[in-house]
């Protein structure tokens, strides 16, 4: 479904990603983990087409994102959506949440997700169904972002992320700004939605425990290099890279 082959990226001659290669299957969840500045979020920007790599190839559903521009890139992007770290910053404070939720659907009027087929021409009903999909009541439709809790806002962000029923959902530190008790609820919600829609997740985090819980495989980034890639069940194997072992030790100690 997703193939990343020999991808490199630099900013002002400073290497950020160096010859990154990995692939994902449909319905798989892959975790990207590493310290701040390791290149995780840059990799996400390249995959979604917000930036272009200096070298290498990224294909989603056999479409090379690096070769696309303009309308063709916009068309391809509908298959990959993003849930951001800070839902308050990613939602328009001047719009009621229902308008933010259906924004992707209005940008792609020809897309008809299977679970919205019966209400595709009714904006409010689509927003209501999406709210319910993420465990929120329809009475929140007219609320504004500042009137919601952090957990509610992140659920709104997830509702928007799944609105086009994408093949790939990139979750960029989706729980780092939330209280610990709410983090678990959001992780469980994402797991349920993944199973329901058979979506693939690229789950970016600095928290090894969350990555292991969410993901089938884990990719470890260090200073722009992919140093380890393995099944989540093999996290504690003696064959793990020393840097992976360090991340595990930090998680255990905390």
Can you tell me about this structure?
It is a single chain. The chain has 254 residues and is α/β, with parallel strands linked by helices. It contains ten helices and ten strands. The protein has a six-stranded mixed beta sheet, with helices on both faces. The chain has a four-stranded antiparallel beta sheet with strand order 2-1-4-5, with helices on one face. Helix 7 (150-162) runs parallel beside helix 8 (180-197). The chain is globular, with a radius of gyration of 18 Å. 38% of the residues are buried. The model has no long low-confidence stretch (mean pLDDT 93).
Summarize the structure in short:
36% of the residues lie in helices and 24% in strands. The chain is an alpha/beta fold and 254 residues long.
Model regions low in confidence, pLDDT < 50 over at least 5 residues: none
CATH third-tier fold name of the largest domain: Rossmann fold
Fraction of residues in H or I helices:
25-40%
Following the backbone from N to C, one meets helices and strands in this order, namely: EEEHEEHEHHHHHEHEHEEH
Instruction: Write down the domain tally.
Output: 2
- How would you classify the helix and strand content by structural class? alpha/beta
For the CA atoms, what is the radius of gyration? 18 Å
| N-C termini distance | 36 Å
Mean pLDDT comes to 93
How would a crystallographer describe the biggest sheet? 6 strands, mixed
- From the 3D coordinates, which CATH architecture of the largest domain would you assign? 3-Layer(aba) Sandwich
- State the CATH class of the largest domain: Alpha Beta
Percent strand equals 15-25%
The geometry reads as globular
CATH-defined superfamily of the largest domain:
P-loop containing nucleotide triphosphate hydrolases
């Amino acid at each position: 479904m997703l193939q990343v082959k020999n991808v490199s990226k630099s900013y002002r001659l400073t290497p950020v990603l160096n010859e990154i290669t990995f692939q994902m299957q449909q319905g798989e969840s892959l975790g990207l983990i590493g310290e701040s500045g390791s290149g995780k979020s840059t990799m996400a920007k390249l995959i979604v087409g917000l930036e272009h790599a200096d070298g290498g190839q990224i294909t989603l559903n056999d479409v090379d994102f690096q070769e696309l521009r303009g309308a063709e890139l916009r068309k391809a992007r509908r298959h990959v959506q993003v849930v951001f770290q800070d839902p308050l910053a990613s939602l328009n404070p001047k719009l009621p949440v229902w308008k933010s939720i259906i924004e992707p659907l209005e940008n792609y009027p020809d897309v008809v997700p299977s679970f919205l087929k019966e209400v595709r021409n009714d904006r409010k009903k689509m927003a209501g169904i999406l709210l319910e999909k993420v465990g929120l009541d329809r009475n929140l439709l007219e609320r504004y972002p500042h009137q919601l809790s952090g957990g509610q806002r992140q659920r709104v962000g997830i509702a928007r992320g799944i609105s086009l029923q994408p093949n790939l959902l990139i979750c960029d530190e989706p729980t780092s700004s939330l209280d610990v008790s709410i983090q678990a609820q959001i992780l469980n919600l994402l797991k349920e939605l993944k199973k329901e829609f058979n979506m693939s997740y690229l789950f970016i985090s600095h928290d090894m425990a969350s990555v292991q819980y969410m993901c089938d495989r884990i990719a470890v980034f260090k200073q722009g290099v992919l140093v380890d890639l393995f099944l989540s069940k093999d996290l504690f194997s003696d064959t793990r890279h020393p840097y992976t072992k360090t991340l595990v030790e930090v998680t255990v100690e905390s």
